[in-house]
Amino acid sequence: MDSNFLVDFNEGVAKFNLSGRLDTTNAPALSDELKELVGQNVEKIVFMANDLEYISSAGLRVIVFAKQKMGVDTQVFVVSPQQDVLDVIKMSGFDSFLKILDSFDD
Amino acid sequence: MIRIDTYPTHTYGEFQLRPGKPLPFGATIVPGGVNFSIYSRHATTCELVLFRKHESEPFGTIPFPDEFRIGNVFTMIVFDLDYEEIEYGFKMDGPFNPEEGLWFDKTKILMDPYAKAIGGRDVWGEEPDWDNTYQHRARLVYDDFDWEGDRPLETPMEDLVIYEMHVRGFTRHPSSKVKHPGTFTAIRQKIPYLKKLGINCIELLPIHEFDEFENSRISPVTGERLVNYWGYSNVGFFAPKTGYAATGKFGMQVDELKTLIRDLHKNGIEVILDVVFNHTAEGNENGPYISYRGIDNKTYYMLTPEGYYFNFSGCGNTLNCNNPIVRNMILGCLRYWTAEYHIDGFRFDLAAILGRDQNGAPMHNPPLLETLAFDPILGKCKLIAEAWDAGGLYQVGSFPSWGRWAEWNGKFRDDLRKFLKGEEGLKDTMMQRLQGSPEMYKWQGLGTCASINFITCHDGFTLKDLVSYNDKHNEANGEDNRDGGNDNDSWNCGCEGTTEDEGINRLRKRQIKNALSMLILSQGVPMLLSGDEIGNTQFGNNNAYCQDNEISWLDWELLKTNKEIFNFCKNMIAFRKKHPVLRSNIHFQNRDYVGSGYPDISWHGQKAWQPESSPNDLMVAFMLCGKHAKGGTVDDDAIYMAINMHWEMHGFELPKLPNGVNWHIFANTGMESPEDIWKIGKEKKLVDVDEILVGPKSIVVLVGR
């Protein structure tokens, strides 16, 4: 379980590392870290999801919240999610504004 | 704004509490905690029992402090709960006196009637832990959702083509080739199919939480497990069935269902829910304590003076629908589905029960039905009643309607089936059915939309089986074929069941097309049974309520095998949607009121303008004048339909059209594909033709332009 998600914020690109589980126990912490970025000219939010094994409703809502708070011009990416996690994102309908990528190069 | 009431004021053990709000009922996430609210008229005390998900022992039991109670409502806020990980229940104490209708037992853990999500049957068919004392467990939900601007579609009712579907059965068969078969999300993958077919409304068999293991037993015939497959038995009215969601095991069924509805709406498809407010899964005196019995038995159930359960549902108990408290619960429930899930309408199972009073007697002005008819939130919802019950109350044509309630027209089903078979003496009746049954519904205030026309539904034979079997074959249900209706008005076309005989198979195909033509081109609202468009069969089982297998699962291979029927159905639906004259919401007057020279509808026989000129009662023809479309406000083509259910071919003299207008042939069920039906705009022009020949047991449809 991660307590520190943000790994890099450079030239408008904020990279977050998600691993293990993202649920009610740690989603609020991620939400706080995202809130710190509001107003700081974020063009892209990138969630590196290769090691993310499980995302709950609370976790999904934090990612949506990121998009809503940052604004229309900010793009949100989820990179290399595991199949089960990707399935859940699509089935619960939270994928409409996300871009799913296999990899992300700056 | 900073609220001053989001902090605990009391402590109980390790729990922090605060007086709650009585509304909304149930469990609501509030800042810092959860607001619990439950009412009971006759309970003396109530405790909240908290579990971690799936654990058999609770981690906390908190009595509702009496100083928090408002009226008969127990309420409190509990702080610092993990919303996703807890399950909750109630223990209620009070008198145990069944003769007085009181069944309080404080050892039982009871499910919240207002639970928005329910655990315990998370994955369909997964064997439960039978030793668990709390089988159906209430959970919390997030009610936020991004609808992306969606709202109920408010499609005019006369424009609906309803498709009755079972969530699991629709995609569970391996031939469906979807990811996560048998679930809400799987339906999304079939949206292109539904659009191609042309339907614009799906009516779902119960999707509220029910127990598939209720009355489960092993079939003595097949050795397979029989389950409560259709779901006409209620555990929780406010929760979608977890086992129908692919994400159910993660607790995301609410989002998954809302996403499905959002997708359907984006594609112009309405959603009607089959709701079962007539009984619950608690059965009679011998049934389990799930919820209502232990919370407020006397309020929720219709009881005899001796305290026994009335059984107007045939399922053990009857919900006390016109009790003011239960009435409010039902209203609250429908408002919830409409506002929170954007549901477009509701079909009420055994709706005659909703018109019985607390002693079971039928009422003239049932308060519940009136409340629902006039409720503002439900104001644009379709309300459809299955206007009978299992206690002998048959109200088709007389259901209290206030101009808002439509009915499943059981007479349409019966009369069309008889006529299709070739039963004599039905011409006058058919003239009524084809026009939206004005003799039944003209004075109800809903026009033709009062009549939901159907020939098949989940109850009874599929359309394919209706023309393949004279008798029911329900042995697989394990009741010696005693279950299921006997008055099917079906006809096997010469041989019982599957046959290699080409003549019989051709006749069956023709009969299916005949049925579809009459259903789709009648005034009123047509409802099709899912699978009928591809000739789906249940192998003669007309009561497949317990068959969770190939008997009731849609076989998608049939889309290839029977693509001729699919093509016919699809084009017939497209024809209905193209021609407003087929979708009048007011009953025809049978006269010319726009001065076109033709009545809005006119009847014909072998001779034009003379419906009595046919040699028998098995031939009827009508013409619709296009200038009378939508009460004369819209211009449409003329339509002529000749129905010949007799054994022999007959000529029908065609009514003359004005100069420059010609009849074109749109469909002829007597012909083999591709001459059985034409695409819109490609109908074949008939030149210098005064008469058409309609083959034995065939229907011809012409369009005049």
In short:
The complex is a heterodimer of chains A (106) and B (705). Chain A is of the alpha/beta class.
Keywords:
heterodimer, A: 106 residues, alpha/beta, Transcription Regulator spoIIAA, five-stranded mixed sheet, 3 helices, 31% helix, B: 705 residues, alpha+beta, Immunoglobulin-like, eight-stranded parallel beta barrel, six-stranded antiparallel sheet, 20% strand, elongated
Description:
The complex is a heterodimer of chains A (106) and B (705). Chain A has 106 residues and is α/β, with parallel strands linked by helices. Chain A has a single domain, classed as STAS domain (Transcription Regulator spoIIAA), CATH 3.30.750. Chain A is 31% helix and 33% strand. Chain A has 3 helices and 5 strands; from the N terminus they run ββαβαβαβ. Chain A has a 5-stranded mixed sheet. In chain A, helix 1 packs parallel to helix 2. Chain A is globular. The model of chain A has no long low-confidence stretch (mean pLDDT 89). With 705 residues, chain B is an alpha+beta fold. Among the domains of chain B are: 130 residues, Immunoglobulin-like (Sandwich), CATH 2.60.40; 124 residues, Golgi alpha-mannosidase II (Immunoglobulin-like, Sandwich). Chain B has 15 helices and 32 strands. In chain B, the strands form 8 sheets. An 8-stranded parallel barrel of chain B has the order 13-14-19-20-21-22-23-24. In chain B, strands 25-26-27-32-29-30 form a 6-stranded antiparallel sheet, with helices on one face. In chain B, strands 1-2-7-4-3 form a 5-stranded antiparallel sheet, with no helix packed on it. In chain B, strand 20, helix 7 and strand 21 form a beta-alpha-beta unit. The N and C termini of chain B lie far apart (67 Å). The mean pLDDT of chain B is 96. At the A-B interface, helix 2 and helix 3 of A face helix 4 of B.
Write the layout of secondary structure elements.
The complex is a heterodimer of chains A (106) and B (705).
Chain A: E1 6-10, E2 13-22, H1 27-36, E3 44-55, H2 57-70, E4 75-79, H3 83-91, E5 99-101
Parallel strand pairs in A: 2-3, 3-4, 4-5
Antiparallel strand pairs in A: 1-2
Chain B: E1 10-12, E2 15-19, E3 26-30, E4 33-39, E5 45-52, E6 60-63, E7 73-79, E8 86-93, E9 96-97, E10 102-103, E11 117-119, E12 137-139, E13 162-165, H1 167-171, H2 184-189, H3 191-197, E14 201-204, E15 208-209, E16 217-218, E17 225-226, E18 236-240, H4 253-266, E19 270-275, H5 292-300, H6 324-341, E20 345-348, H7 367-374, E21 382-385, E22 405-408, H8 410-421, H9 427-434, H10 438-441, E23 451-454, H11 463-466, H12 502-521, E24 525-529, H13 558-561, H14 563-578, E25 601-604, E26 619-624, H15 629-632, E27 638-644, E28 650-653, E29 663-668, E30 684-685, E31 691-694, E32 698-704
Parallel strand pairs in B: 13-14, 13-24, 14-19, 19-20, 20-21, 21-22, 22-23, 23-24
Antiparallel strand pairs in B: 1-2, 2-7, 3-4, 4-7, 5-6, 5-8, 8-12, 9-10, 11-12, 15-18, 16-17, 25-26, 26-27, 27-32, 28-31, 29-30, 29-32
Helix pairs in contact in B: 6-7, 8-9, 12-14
